Amino acid sequence: MEPGEIHALLGENGAGKSTLMNVLYGLYQPDEGEILVDGKPLKLKGPSDAIAAGIGMVHQHFMLVPVFTVAENVMLGAEQVRGPFAGILDRRRARREVAEVSERYNLRVDPDAVIEDLPVGIQQRVEIVKALTRDVDLLILDEPTAVLTPQETEELLTVMRSLKAAGKSIVFITHKLGEVKAIADRITVIRRGKTVGTAEPSASRDELAALMVGRSVRLTVDKKPAEPGKPILEIAGLVVDDDRQVRAVDGIDLTVRAGEVLGVAGVQGNGQTELIEAIMGLRPTLAGTVSLDGEVVNGWSTKKVLRAGVGYVPEDRSVDGLVKEFSVAENLVLDIYDRPPFGKGLSLKPDAIGKSAKERIEQFDIRTSSADAAVGTLSGGNQQKVIVARELSRPLKLFIAAQPTRGVDVGSIEFIHSRVIRERDIGTAVMVVSSELDEVIGLADRIAVMYRGRIIGIVGPDTPREEIGLLMAGITPDTATPTADSPANEDEA
Amino acid sequence: MSTTAVPEVAVTAVDEGFWTRTRKAGAVLLALGVLAAVLFGALATGQQARFTLSETEGGAALEINGTIGAILFGVIAAAAGAALLAGVPKRWFTLLLGAGLVAFVLSFLCWQVSAAPEGRNFMPLVNVVRGTFILALPLIFGALAGVLCERSGVVNVAIEGQLLMGAFSGALFGSISGSVWVGLVAAAIGGAFISLLLAVFAIRYLVDQVVMGIVLNLLAVGVTGFLYERLMQTDAAKYNSAPRFSNWEIPLLKDIPLIGPALFRGNIFLYLGLLLVLVIHLALFRTRWGLRTRSVGEHPTAADTLGVKVLRLRYRNVIMAGLVAGVGGASYTLALYSFTKNMIGGKGFIALAALIFGRWSPTGALLAALFFGFADQLATYLGAIGSSIPSQFLAMLPYLATILAVAGLVGKVRAPAADGKPYIKG
Amino acid sequence: MTNPNPVSGSPDKEPATEAQEARGEARATPTAPAGDTERQVPATATKQPAAGEPRPSLGKLFLDNLWAANTVTVTVLAVVLAMLVGAVLIIVSDPEVLATYSYITARPADALNASWTVVSEAYANLFKGAIFDPDAVGFTAVMGPISETLTYTAPLVFTGLSVALAFRGGLFNIGAQGQATIGVILAAVAGFALPLPPGVHLLVALIAGALGGALWGFIPGILKARTGAHEVINTIMLNYVAIYFLSWIIIQGGVQNPDRADAISKPVDSSAQLPRLLGDNLRVHAGILLAVLATWFIAWLLNRSTLGFELRAVGENPDAARTAGISVTKTYVLVMATAGLLAGLGGSNMVLGSTANALTPLVIAQIGFDGILVALLGRVRPWGVLLAALLFGALQAGGNRMQSYSGISLELVTVLQALIVIFIAAPALVKAIFQLRAARAARLQTSLAKGW
């Protein structure tokens, strides 16, 4: 890193960018290797060492106390005190400092505003102010634009330029090509924990996209061409908020037909999670309709949706998919435990559950010491197979799989993929949501790319991956039709 | 991208409708006021309701005809409710609600006092105010102990045990040494002993804090009860005759009418308690320690990234809480009574209620403690004038009020975000 | 940060799966949370020796396993530790014994002998009062201690089950005391106010008590489901509301015993009394049979019913339960009502059994709070709760004898109970004290912490 340089760290989700930077900030300890500052090796025992060494970081999840004011957040840990008794906070000085920094770098914030009342973009600004008041020379911004609106992003880029002009170095972690090209002086691309290349901002988008997504690991899935039948899932004008009441799904129209796989590609956090949860009745819809096989299912309970013939593999298996303390057998009936033959009235039929578990373990090649072992003791791949086995063991109209192979070994990936295709071939409508572009390309018959809560494009699986990569980054090249909801585009695939 | 119509749809979804919190509170208050005016007014007698500014029947007094008073104050309460219902600026909310509730209580008192038998139809305000504060004392200390703990993210259900241990060791060591000051220090250490156990098990061994609090309460009941029977009962003169703090009169303040004789002619623990409320309030919101404490209770990870030593701060605060609660225990044994088995009798849990009702702030806790103390004192008073209102129902009041508060019916109660969650680095 | 891997090491499983768990843990170790260092070691302790290594003798293996930190070992050692602390308390609170310590350097034997005498006598009486007195002659005297133990055990089983059931559903029921209070009120009132034939009368009284408890559990349940109000706060508050309600209702006309001036109700009719099991001279009554029945039923409910499946799923992972279509809010209400029902039955036992036959302000003693300890000691499993209640019942019964024979106050029992649970709750501490080989951490499922 040079002084006054903006260095972009580019890579897909999970490529290791954030981990690297957390090591640099002293939050994680490196297993091997060392960090050099001004040519000298630096040992960071904790964040305070990093701050002392002039390194500041804006975390992806803000490290702000929501009920504190801006000034309080800024002074925390480096409080100025005054008065006859040690320890009286000098709020006036803190406020002045905030004001000064805001002024100098053109970062307008109200020092007395309470954090939780501020929009995300301003909160981020507070984080930057917080770092700047600590006189950092090197500022790490971890995915700073992930949560920002385009206008806020534009403002952030302006701020970064002014910081650069003031001689600060910035590490800018992102997966968005456009921003990188707009601001970076130098670009390092990371993939699977390794540096795969360094580029100048003059490099073309195609080059960068190629570096970022790579070509080598393309998974092939054997499949026949799809024979789409009637529409099973029809979504029209769907609007959903996330947990913080921020718009996550912003008017989506989508159709999945029987016997086809619709892949939903997109960088995580662009509304995919909320879209699926709305379909499953786990999240209220604010507008629009979701219909299943011609029947509107808005407002149905999750149980009713499941019973109507929807299979669901949630994206975070350890949080939403499995009860880790439960046995494999119990997890295999987690959503059908009260249906014959597993349950009758109030009573549970352990024999039937055990017997069915043995069959599933066999069929789905689940590697476990026994059906009674707690699911938490299984490897990630086998845990995922438990969920897939559970959901594919009943007759389905629609199968929704979110991140079906995240954190799963290669063998299990192939197996899960083949089961997904098999499900398609028996006439189930399948929707696969994944941030792994390879997976989407490998499985899907049509690919819908989500960006900021909208479908930015629907393309065929033979579309060049660079083009899809650009769509994921919110850039619609001239070749791709940017309209998601034109019927012509729907039929294209 | 023809979805421009969408955003407006969602924005309207946030609308709370007609029944905002203010309106609901207003409706309840209106109903209470009407009830008071009609029911209390009908039940009250034409006797004068006298509120004397002394400890006895004599002296200056505020007087009002019972029936008129009950109806008048009921109408005032109803008016305050109606104003809230009609929709007033937000800043008026607390004021109107407070005024309405006070009017309701006054209406109730007019009925009760006027309906009391001849010769007892007066309320000595000095006694009532003093009793309120004295009964609130253990609650104040206990709730402050809760504030110190919970603001830094450790749930303190062991207040009861800390008070009890403080009372016990104050009595024991005060008796043995014959010095109130030794007793006071011992009481503080006794309380801190329980909170040290809480800290070690909650922070070091990650035991659930509520579980630990409950168990520590039982431990304190057991240990003090056991030693009471073994030592204090066999030789009360040696082990359970602690000297008492003599009354300290505060010059000037003691001459204020009503307040002076009620508060400033006696109990040193009362001064200490009020002083502590002030000190802890200022410390919590004005000092470096306070800022860090609150940050650790709200978002320990953020505090950690800024170099705040989360665990060390939690240890320190929990132990300080024990010291405070221990002194609160001593307010029994070094000022009022000799030690008896389980003498705290659930006050620690009312202190917890006061803490929650006071929204985890020292001043809020003080007000809540005074409210609960007043309910307690009122029960005693009503018993003395032979009222038909069962004292047990007044005694329930603090608990019921807390349930309503937690359920969100009386404003929003929010605990420190990280309260009860162990902090594990990494 | 908020829920640091509550998964591994939770004892909250069926015993059958535990062995596999232990092995599974070895593989799962790398995922164990930082800061929980005692669990990093276990892999080696239980792993079968590799084929090439010399096989250790069976005896050594047995000892190794015995000294490994499994549930039973930790429990036994916790009891031992608690007794040791209790012994210290007995010694320091005995002025005569303490006096011998003033010249301990001169004649250490005096101090040790005196200490040994007072402690051993106390604990011997504890044993004799709880289990068996070798000097006893005759059926009544021989069976006396067991009868007393079972009498004290019965209500604790109910309240212990109440707390344990709620725990399994992810809720902390501190309100067993209040639920038992409402239960005892309704049971007693039904017991003396309704003119019913024997048998039916008892049944009606039990149902009344159960419903009273269920109502008192339902309130925090519905508040939790509807408003998210924390059940810990609400159950604590409701405990006191119940206590004041009890002290009020006792002195009401129609309830208060007309022959007495103090706060005591009319006695329960004999037609509503639980029958005694071993004749009129021994106090043990049918309540203990009901307790075993309840244990069996709760065990069935938890492990063999769809309701129990939902409850456990919600308790272990509410997110996954919701995703699988289980209604979390409905489950919370149901769990609390059922927990209250159990505690209400426990309360009913206190007045329909032989402990008392009329309401007094202290009629249910501490059974609700003791139930929390029992549930924790029983590792929140039904049959474990039964055993823990037996231990606590024995301590109570023995404590009575210790009090009257050795003059050691009954409070020592409370101390012992609290200490046992403290040591159980922090197995890492017990292991550190005894240098246990760390096998599977017998950790309590106490990671319920969700804050207020």
What's the number of structural domains of chain A? 3
Relevant CATH superfamily of the largest domain in chain A: P-loop containing nucleotide triphosphate hydrolases
Number of extended strands of chain C:
0
Largest sheet, strands/sense/barrel of chain C: none
CATH topology of the largest domain in chain A: Rossmann fold
Calculate Rg of chain A over CA atoms.
Answer: 25 Å
Structural class of chain C: mainly alpha
Number of helices of chain C: 18
CA-based shape of chain A: globular
Explain this structure.
The complex is a heterotrimer of chains A (493), B (426) and C (452). Chain A folds into 3 domains: 6-213, Rossmann fold; 217-309 and 395-493, Rossmann fold (3-Layer(aba) Sandwich); 326-394, no CATH class. Chain A is 34% helix and 22% strand. Chain A has helices at residues 17-24, 47-52, 70-75, 91-105, 120-133, 150-165, 177-183, 205-213, 272-279, 302-307, 317-321, 328-332, 350-363, 380-391, 410-425, 437-443, 465-472, 487-492; strands at residues 6-10, 35-37, 40-42, 55-58, 81-82, 88-89, 138-142, 169-174, 186-191, 194-199, 231-241, 247-257, 261-265, 287-292, 295-296, 310-313, 343-344, 347-348, 398-402, 429-433, 446-451, 454-459. In chain A, the strands form 6 sheets. Chain A has a 6-stranded mixed sheet with strand order 4-7-8-1-9-10, with helices on both faces. In chain A, helix 14 runs parallel beside helix 15. Chain A is globular, with a radius of gyration of 25 Å. The two termini of chain A are 46 Å apart. In chain B, strand 1 and strand 2 form a beta hairpin. By secondary structure, chain B is mainly α. Chain B has 17 helices and 5 strands. In chain B, 58% of the residues are buried. The two termini of chain B are 43 Å apart. In chain B, helix 7 runs antiparallel to helix 8. The model of chain B is unreliable at 1-16 (pLDDT under 50). A 3-stranded mixed sheet of chain B has the order 2-1-3. Chain B has a two-stranded antiparallel sheet with strand order 4-5. Chain C has a domain at 139-380. Chain C has 18 helices and no strands. Chain C has helices spanning 15-28, 42-46, 58-67, 71-92, 95-101, 108-130, 139-168, 176-193, 200-227, 231-250, 287-304, 306-316, 318-323, 328-352, 367-377, 382-406, 411-425, 427-434. Chain C starts with 14 loop residues before the first helix and ends in an 18-residue tail after the last helix. The model of chain C is unreliable at 1-53 and 439-451 (pLDDT under 50). At the B-C interface, helix 8, helix 15 and helix 17 of B face helix 9, helix 10, helix 15 and helix 17 of C.
